[in-house]
Amino acid sequence: MKRHRTPRSAYPIAREQLAQLAEACGTTVYRANKLKDLDAVYEQVIRDLGTVYSIGYRPSKTTRDGKWRSVTVQLLDRKDVNARTKRGYYAKSESNQ
Asked: How far apart are alpha carbons 14 and 2 in whole angstroms?
């Protein structure tokens, strides 16, 4: 049986792509360098899940054109809080309803 080894050069690329994906989704990358690090990672995930909030809004532009819509969330008068959010979404198009 042949073993396929992943070249070391692939790992930094994969980490960067994972970071980009997490940023686009408005989340974070939880890192565990060793198996023993997972306990701390799980604790952080549990803390983060305990502070998840959902918000909604109605867009001012209602055209169904399938184009990208940027969204920005600002927390006024709350310097102690950090909002991790998606950067936007694609509007539904007329053909995809």
From this structure: 23
Phi, psi of 3 (to 5 degrees): -100, 130
Cβ contact 25:85 at 8 Å: no
Token pair, residue 20, equals: 């980009």
- DSSP single-letter state for residue 69: E
Q: CA-CA distances (angstroms) from residue 44 to 9, 28, 35, 87?
A: 29, 11, 15, 23
Question: What confidence tens digit (pLDDT) does each residue in 27-62 have?
Answer: 889 999 899 999 999 999 999 888 888 888 888 888
pLDDT of residue 10: 93
pLDDT digits (tens, 9 = 90+) for 60-91: 888 889 999 998 888 889 888 888 888 888 88
Contacts (Cβ under 8 Å, ≥6 apart) of 43: none
Measure the N-to-C terminal CA separation of the chain; round to a whole number of Å: 49
Please, which residues bridge with residue 93 across strands? Answer: 65
